[in-house]
Design brief:
Elements: E1 2-4, E2 11-13, E3 17-19, E4 27-31, H1 32-44, H2 46-61, H3 63-74, H4 76-91, H5 95-104, E5 130-133, E6 140-144, H6 146-154, H7 159-171
Helix pairs in contact: 1-2, 3-4
């Protein structure tokens, strides 16, 4: 069976049309390619963006959406995608740049030179080294274990406090 697309006017086989039970022949009026192009154009309009956002929010709140997102976030692919997004958003670096820094540091903390030993919240995996960055310039300085990262954080990256702490420890 062949059908003419009402958009591009081409005569195409039935497999080139989406199903539509409301029409007599059970096929959409537009071919799949025209339908796809129309959807892309619509999604670029402001109304299309709003509709897509609302549709996404509604789907996320549905039971199927919640279940799918939960399963994806537990999957290896989902974990990697999440890590990539967080690195890019928070520090402006890619996972490849993180991995290169990790390799250069030999998988060890830039301060104590030890590998990370702290486990994630579930206690199942060793945490990744934390990305240390200057809070004023947001420049990445290196990778730190949890303890050293907290040390710098509690000292507010203040070298005077850290030097005074080192002198204190030497004197005691």
């Amino acid at each position: 069976m062949t059908k003419a697309c009402t958009k591009c006017r081409q005569l195409l086989s039935a497999k080139n049309f989406n199903k539509n039970k409301t029409l007599k022949d059970g096929l959409s009026c537009w071919c799949k390619q025209c339908h796809s192009e129309g959807n892309k154009r619509y999604k670029q309009t402001e109304k299309g963006k709003i509709t897509a956002r609302k549709s996404w929010q509604k789907w996320k709140q549905s039971e199927k959406g919640k279940r799918t997102i939960k399963e994806y976030s537990k999957s290896k692919v989902g974990k990697i995608a999440s890590r990539k997004a967080k690195l890019k958003q928070k520090f402006g670096i890619t996972l490849e740049q993180y991995n290169k820094m990790f390799e250069v540091q030999g998988g060890r903390c830039a301060i104590c030179k030890k590998p990370e030993i702290k486990r994630n919240n579930k206690g199942t995996d060793i945490r990744m080294l934390a990305v240390d960055h200057d809070h004023k310039t947001n420049n990445v300085r290196g990778l730190l274990c949890d303890k050293c990262n907290l040390l710098l954080g509690h000292a507010n990256d203040n070298t005077t406090i850290l030097l005074n702490a080192a002198i204190y420890l030497e004197e005691c």
